[in-house]
Amino acid sequence: MSLSTFLKWAARICSVLVVATFLMILVSEFIPPFHSGPPQRPLEWLGISLCILAALGLAVSFRHERVGAVMTLSALAAFSMAITMPDQRIVLAFAVPSVLFLAHSFTISR
Fold first, then answer.
1. d(Cα 83, Cα 47) in Å, to the nearest integer?
2. Which of 6, 24, 80, 109 is least buried, going by the fewest C-beta atoms within 10 A?
């Protein structure tokens, strides 16, 4: 297996896992037993919107690796700057598929 093929499939598998995790978090935001209800503040809606944009970027990456990866990494960078979290490692974990897609885009010639 070539490096390019490995990067492509590793990125795709990781992105499916990241999107599934995000969807689980998104659904739990709106279910009362797990959360106090839907987001109320504009900053909370901004965070959700940026995460949705990042997930869409991962979907774009399946066809256009570089464009989708830059889209996702930009949305995650904006999320990190806008939303204060005690531990930013989750954002880094969500960025892994984009980094892999970006690496794959540089290994293929077009």
1. 7
2. 109
Handedness of CA 29, 69, 15, 97 (dihedral sign): negative
Question: pLDDT (tens digit, 9 = 90+) per residue, 57-100?
Answer: 999 999 999 999 999 999 999 999 998 888 888 889 999 999 99
How far CA 83 is from CA of 10, 24, 78, 88, in Å, comes to 28, 19, 8, 10
Give the Cα separation of 98 and 15 in Å (integer). 8
- pTM given for the model: 0.87
Give the CA angle between residues 74, 53, 21 to the nearest 5°.
105
**pLDDT recorded at residue 35:** 67
